[in-house]
Amino acid sequence: MRKRALPLLLWLCAAFTQAQAQSYLLVLNKAENSLAVLDGRDYQVVARIPVGEGPHEVIASADGKFAYVGNYGTAQVLGSSLSVIDLAAKKELRRVDLGALRRPHGLVEINGKILFTCEVNRVIARYDPAADKVDWVMGAGQDATHMIVGNAEHKKVFTTNIRSGTVTVFDFSGNITTLTQIAVGNQPEGLDITPDGKEVWAAHRGAGDISVIDAAAKKVSETIKAPGDLYRVKFTPDGRRALITDPQAGELIVIETATRKELKRIPIEGAPAGITTSADGKRAFVTTLQANGVAVIDLEALRVTAKVETGKGPDGLAWVGH
User: Which CATH number is 231-322's, of 3.40.50.10260, 3.40.630.10, 2.120.10.30, 2.40.128.630?
Assistant: First the structure.
C-alpha cells in the first residue's frame, strides 16, 4: 500500500509545485478592447479576454487571483468603467460602472483596495472589490491626473499630472489626508516608486529628464538628464535599475539607480511603451504600440531576446506569479 501511495504523493507534489510556479504576462490591447494572457514561460497567448473600450492600464492583485483594468475610452468616447478579471477562470468577472468618473487610467492596490486616477475629473478614487463599490474619492486639483504609485507601508500615493507639470502626494499617515503639490518638469507622465519606498521617479515627455522625489520629504531632490520622449519608468524588483521607454527614438533606456548613470539604450522597434518585469528581475517586457506586441529583454545581457504578437495597440501590462 505504501509503495502505491509514494508515486501518487510524488505526483501530487510535482503538480502542486508546477501550479505554484505558473506565471502569466498580462497585456492590454487598447485598439481591440482585450486583455491577452500569455504563459510566462513560453509567451504563448492562452486567453484573450474582452474588456471595456480603450483599456490603458492593468494591475494584478497581490494574491495573483484577479486583474483590474482601467477602461480609459477613445478620442470619441470617455471611458467610465473598471474591468475585474478572474485569472483562474480567464474571464471578466464584472464591469464596474464608475458613473460620472471619467477616463480611469493608472491603478495601484493598497491594502486590498484599488486606487485609480480619473483624468477628466482630476481625482483619485478607491474601489473596494469585496463590497464591489467605489467608497472614496479625492481631488488632486491638477490637470490630467494620469499615473499613480504608492505602497501601504509608507501611507502615501503619488500621481503625475501631465498638463499641470506636477506630482501630487496624497498622504494618509494622519487623521486627515493631506495633499502636497510638487512642481516638476514639463509633461510628467511615467512614474514609479523604488522598492524601498524612498524615492519616486517622474519621467517627462516634454523635458527629456527625470525628477527624483524624496518620498519622505515630499520634494524634488535631483533631476536626471535623459534626453528623449520619456513615456514610462519602471524599477527592477531589486531597485538597482530604472527602465524608461522612449517611443519616438525606439529605445529602452537603462539607468543605474544608485549612481544615476545611463548604462545602455536598447533599440526596440515599433514604438516601445509600457514596461513590466518578471518577479525574479531577469526579464523585462515592453509593449510595442506599432508592432502590436511585446519585446522580451534579457536584463543581464541587456538585449532583446524575443518578440511576441499580442493584439492591436498594446499598452499597459503586468506580471503575475513567480
Answer: 2.40.128.630
Asked if 42 and 300 touch (Cβ cutoff 8 Å), the reply is no
Q: What is the DSSP string of 202-267?
A: EEETTTSEEEEEETTTTEEEEEEE--S----EEE-TTSSEEEEEETTTTEEEEEETTT--EEEEEE
Identify the sign of the CA torsion 314, 42, 108, 102.
positive
Cα(70)–Cα(79) distance, integer angstroms:
8
pLDDT tens, residue by residue, 56-85: 999 999 999 999 999 999 999 999 999 999
Q: Give the C-alpha distances (Å, rounded to integers) separating 39 from 44, 148, 298.
A: 5, 27, 17
Rg (CA), the chain: 20
DSSP one-letter code for 240: S
- What gap in Å lies between CA 38 and CA 59, rounded to an integer? 15
